[in-house]
Design a protein that fits this description.
This protein has two helices and five strands, in the order βαβββαβ. The chain is of the alpha+beta class and 72 residues long.
Length: 72
């Protein structure tokens, strides 16, 4: 499933970052395959805020649509 399909409060494992121009930006934010994140805020059709370790990262719609995840 895509990160944009996850609900607030869910923990997910990043399985794929996609193969698009957004991939490099996702990696620069510190999100890599195998990393676990928690969905803090999910705006349908808009941005998401995820927690990864001690940091919170805001992702625009294009970025959250590019990331494939698995529920934990």
């Amino acid at each position: 499933m895509r990160l944009s399909d996850a609900r607030e409060g869910e923990r997910v494992l990043i399985e794929d970052l996609g193969d698009s121009p957004e991939t490099a930006e996702i990696i620069r934010l510190g999100l890599t395959v195998g990393r676990t994140v928690t969905i803090l805020r999910q705006v349908p059709g808009g941005p998401a805020v995820v927690e990864s370790g001690a940091q919170q990262i805001a992702l625009g719609k294009e970025l959250k649509d590019a990331i494939r995840v698995r529920l934990l």
